[in-house]
Amino acid sequence: MLERLNQALDHIEGRLDQDIDVAGLARIAATSEYHLRRLFSALAGMPLSEYVRRRRLTVAGAEVLAGREPLLEIAVRYGYGSGEAFARAFRAMHGVGPGEARREGAALVAQPRLTFRLTVEGRSSMRYRVVDRPEFDVVGLKARVPLVHLGPNQAIIDFVRAIEPATTERLVKLSDQEPRGIVAVCDDLDPSRAEGTELDYYHGVITSGEASEGDAVLTVPAGTWAVFETSGPAPQAIQELWRDVFTQWFPSNPYRSRPGPEILRTRLSADRAEAEAELWLPVEREGE
Fold it and tell me: How far apart are CA 180 and CA 262, in angstroms?
């Protein structure tokens, strides 16, 4: 899988001055467009679109400093419809406008070309299972929140803290399917998974019971799920689980992620220092 991803990166590199078709990249990587975006973001730490943008501005920066072509020609070559749009993007990345950079020979920021490699450390084994589930409902409370890649998501923290204990108790009684108890469900994420884009966050349960007035209901179609389990210090164990799923499990197993909600059940110790977690991700076999 990583070899095919690197072939897709080679394709990007040869076409930085052209339109890049993500569907075509997915064909090179022999996977779906959805899984390519998801896997790339997890491995690279940035969305695919952001990597392409930064690589273009890196190459464009070198051409600006070379001084051989008008700035507008460079702007158009790398996909900007006007000199103003190019100048804004250039300044956002490099901290200086293209004209000033050319006049003063400024030091610019560079986005290195990426190459993915799999490092097998063997420090721990990953506990997982693959299950087929019929259609089910998520019932609970819902909020639209921004996506945060690192650190706490304050919008989610504030949302959950505002939920009345009686509401949580009522929802827990509805739970009658795996994963049991209160779960955190993320759905309707932007395909780019860029920092700050919004998603639907549900604080609820998996149930066949009836929702109460005011509850949000998310009906999840039948499908296949990969279920991962971990335990250890909080929150490191959960953060490492997400990392390992995309950097180790997907590249070495015949599955790819598919559109659908992502479900996390977490149990904390009394002192909140240790966590047990179960992560449910919608998957399909490669080639389906």
Answer: 15
